[in-house]
Design brief:
The structure is a homodimer. Chain A is mainly α. Chain A contains 6 helices and 2 strands; from the N terminus they run H-H-H-H-E-E-H-H. Chain A has helices at 24-45, 53-59, 69-76, 80-92, 114-138, 140-153, and strands at residues 96-101, 104-112. In chain A, strand 1 (96-101) and strand 2 (104-112) form a beta hairpin. The structure holds a DNA duplex.
DNA sequence: CGTAGTGGTAAAGTGACTTGACCATAACGC
DNA sequence: GCGTTATGGTCAAGTCACTTTACCACTACG
């Protein structure tokens, strides 16, 4: 499903699109969705089928390891209650633990379990897999350009 | 692996990240989220504050104009009931109508109202705005490269 | 024309989220 | 020190966006 036929969005059903060509929004969205789908696919392949897209946001780069729940909530732009709910799920499923923060008695720190670390690694592998495919499609030099340009946008 | 020392994600809170540099997944995700946020921001600025991110998926390129609900559901990867729910909302709020399909009496077609068309145009403006900023940051030539590379990935 | 398939909707249930409240600790004023 | 404000986390209750299930209308196919 990685290559799909070209321009699968131009079916007869949209003969007269009021809009012009896709802007950068759509162009970023679709590859990103492809990455996301691949990650979930691989996780389910390997038996982690109690995870869904919502859980994955927690594992999103750079991952929750060592983070304080409230920090994570800010980073992921969800309320701390919503995040706490997710952390509860993930803890119940054995992917992480919430441990007391030695430096702040109010606070906790997220610690990935072995199972949680596997998920993080699998996600990374899935992305690497897609990277390889894209590098093949664009050629390594141009893929490198793409990554550099995105990285620069990102503030690197 | 401790490059990206200038990255805003390397706060003291994550001194020993288990992962390396961001892979293409994160690099795509973050600019895309920036675009998404800008769109919602502009819509709310202009008084369309009864819309949220979920509604926007319906307006996502290439937009719902003329589409059959079930078609849209497939495209957006949601169940047809969930989509129908969203369409109901958007119809109630005056952004679109569901009209009978002349060619298939079972089917409907989505027709944007004037209000709905405004939203589509505003979204497009917001993206264009971001494009301009990025073109300035990267330089027009390199921004063009970025767009072309993404377009090629997309199957263009 | 009968039977399977497709498009759409309604109804009920669920659960991921919200808002609001609360307690414990920390940081800062004096 | 001691009171005040801010921060971190959690619980409880309510909500609503979605799911599942079912169903009807129409179409396609033999």
């Amino acid at each position: 499903m990685s290559r799909s036929s070209s321009s699968r969005f131009t079916k007869q059903a949209y003969p007269e699109q009021a809009f012009g060509p896709p802007l950068i929004g759509a162009l970023l969205r679709r590859p990103w969705e492809a990455v996301q789908r691949r990650m979930l696919e691989r996780l389910h392949d390997r038996g982690f089928d109690d995870l869904d897209a919502a859980h994955l946001t927690v594992f999103q780069y750079p991952g929750p390891q060592g983070a304080k729940p409230s920090e994570l909530a800010t980073r992921l732009r969800v309320s701390k209650q919503a995040l706490n709910y997710l952390l509860g799920e993930l803890e119940r499923l054995g992917y992480l633990e919430r441990r007391p923060d030695p430096d702040d008695l109010r606070s906790k720190r997220v610690a990935l379990t072995k199972r949680g670390t596997s998920v993080a690694m699998l996600m990374r592998e899935a992305v690497t897999e897609v990277e390889r495919e894209w590098a093949e499609q664009l050629g390594p030099r141009r893929f490198g350009q793409l990554r550099d340009l995105l990285h620069e946008l990102d503030g690197g």
